[in-house]
Amino acid sequence: MDEFDFKDIPEKKPFRLGAALLNCASLFLTLGALAVIGFYALIFLNPNSEFNPLPPAPVAPTQAPTLAPAEPTPEPQPTATPEAEPTATPQPVISFGLQPGDNPSFLNSTIFYPERECNFMAVAGQVFEEGGPIAGLQVRVTGSLNGEPVDKTGLTGAASQYGGGQYYEVQLADQPIASSNALQVTLLDAEGQPISAAHSFSTSASCEENLVMINFTRLP
Fold first, then answer.
1. Residues 96-120: pLDDT tens digits?
2. Phi, psi of 161 (to 5 degrees)
């Protein structure tokens, strides 16, 4: 018997409608799932998309805070300097006056200064209290003499040329000069405060009266 080449002819499977429908359903489900995933991805990436059924509430734009204009720094007002109260000037305590009697008196200066002859004029004297003459007080002579101002001071106890006691001396000129109450003599304490009133006196142009003696005493 002759050999023959027989080819296997595949057997045609019968068409099954159910399986085809099942495959189509699987395909549509897969595509639907991909579409749903894509839809949610779109909403997630863009919540304000028109496809989002529940878009987020619009956020009101934040306004930058308005800064109030800075108030101008007030200029410093000048501080009123308190006026210093005027210091009360201490009133002089008048505790001495002219000694009663022939006061002033006039002497010839050559008794104490024979070498000066008549080339001298001064006022001299002492200050007394109950215990005797006082040293360390000032005697001031002011006024004018022969048209020139006079302001000189002597110290009690400094003029020892007059002998025992506490004499003062204030030289007025190098020669006798006449004047009428143009000079005043005032007694001052050691601090320079007046302790007597100012007493006016006159001078003479005579060489016999060129030393004016004026004494003070404590008032009772």
1. 999 999 999 999 999 999 999 999 9
2. -65, -15
